[in-house]
């Protein structure tokens, strides 16, 4: 098995067809697609270095490690780490491996020990549990410094019919949904609108940005879309995914005014619920839950089999879904006293820096 390193963005772009071909032969999520990761790099790759590793066997790519190399300076401390492209915007990260998984992982790790760039640790966030299991066959000079559950990700296996979906809900929750819909229909003209198409996505995304920020700012907090670069990234993703049929973008209108938006992705028979926006002044109608119900009904009619609420087990998600997956963080360091000491001191330092940032309101 041979490992090839990709550092140039043009070389990354040229991998589109081979990337898609490899994905057809392995289990993966939308966050491992070339479309998601190349768009992410275009928007956030500044001051980072591509470190994509290709595992080739008999002149065929059988595995990809979509890594990047980052040098961070925080309050005077310099750290050098390797992590997945897409972090932290991707809800799931993983290697893309079609065959010989353990051998590919071992080869990737061995190759990293030979690269020119000095690194302090490898931080793999939002990975599935089975990936950690396969890391038992790693090079002797690399050890696991930390492995723990980072997020729970609730999901719902979609039934065959809308009636089965509704009957499967908690009786009290089902009653509250009916009451909310009846109340809003009595007081407003209610309309569900889809903006997933190439001609409509811009309008839907603008509604999402506005409502998401409005909700979080009403709580005195910064929303996800406070930064222009985040808005630009998701606008580009929405444009690209709308042309592929992967975008799921919906709104509830009350008297022709958007009061709730839901932004997600449709991919390989699954729906990934990424973000939402809700006008807090319409809270008594529970527009967020009404919109989720509408989207679930649409997913069932379109033949999708799963609705993934992604990372975070917030109470509203658990009203809909009782199943969940665990996302893990895996931190790898070089063996030896000094790497272990540096890792411990760095973790303490960053914890203190995080507290200081909160104190300063940054």
TrEMBL record:
Q: Which residues are in the BioF2-like acetyltransferase domain?
A: 171-317
Q: Where are the transmembrane segments?
A: none
Name the Gene3D superfamilies for this protein.
3.40.630.30
**Which residues does UniProt assign to the signal peptide?**
none
Q: Which domain of life is it from?
A: Bacteria
Pfam families in UniProt: Acetyltransf_6
Keywords, A to Z, come to: Transferase
Q: Could you state a single Gene Ontology molecular function term?
A: transferase activity
Q: Can you name this protein?
A: GNAT family N-acetyltransferase
Q: Which organism is it from?
A: Fervidobacterium pennivorans
């Amino acid at each position: 098995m041979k490992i090839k390193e990709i550092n140039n963005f043009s070389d990354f772009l040229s991998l589109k067809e081979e990337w898609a071909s490899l994905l057809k032969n392995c289990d993966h999520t939308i966050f491992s697609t070339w479309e998601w990761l190349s768009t992410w790099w275009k928007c956030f790759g500044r001051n980072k270095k591509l470190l994509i590793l290709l595992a080739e066997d008999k002149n065929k790519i059988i595995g990809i490690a979509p890594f990047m190399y980052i040098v961070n300076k925080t309050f005077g401390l310099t750290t050098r780490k390797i992590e997945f492209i897409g972090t932290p915007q991707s809800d799931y990260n993983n290697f893309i491996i079609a065959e010989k998984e353990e051998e590919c992982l071992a080869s990737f790790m061995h190759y990293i020990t030979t690269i020119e760039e000095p690194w302090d640790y490898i931080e793999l966030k939002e990975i599935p549990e089975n990936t950690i299991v396969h890391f038992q066959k790693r090079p002797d000079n690399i050890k696991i410094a930390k492995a723990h559950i980072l997020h729970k990700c609730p999901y719902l296996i979609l039934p065959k019919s809308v009636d089965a979906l509704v009957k499967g809900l908690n009786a009290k929750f089902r009653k509250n949904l009916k009451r909310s819909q009846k109340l809003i229909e009595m007081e407003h003209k209610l309309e569900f609108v889809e903006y997933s198409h190439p001609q409509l996505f811009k309008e839907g995304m603008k509604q999402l940005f506005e409502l998401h920020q409005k909700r979080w700012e009403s709580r005195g907090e910064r929303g996800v879309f406070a930064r222009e670069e985040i808005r630009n990234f998701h606008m580009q993703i929405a444009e690209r995914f709308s042309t592929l049929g992967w975008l799921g973008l919906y709104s509830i209108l009350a008297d022709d005014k958007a009061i709730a938006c839901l932004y997600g992705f449709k991919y390989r028979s699954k729906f990934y619920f990424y973000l939402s926006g809700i006008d807090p002044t319409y809270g008594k109608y529970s527009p967020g839950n009404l919109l989720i119900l509408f989207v679930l009904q649409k997913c069932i009619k379109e033949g999708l089999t799963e609705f993934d609420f992604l990372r975070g087990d917030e109470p509203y998600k658990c009203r809909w879904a009782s199943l969940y997956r665990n996302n893990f963080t895996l931190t790898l360091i070089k063996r030896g006293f000094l790497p272990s000491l540096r890792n411990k001191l760095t973790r303490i330092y960053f914890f203190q820096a995080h507290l200081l940032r909160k104190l300063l309101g940054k």
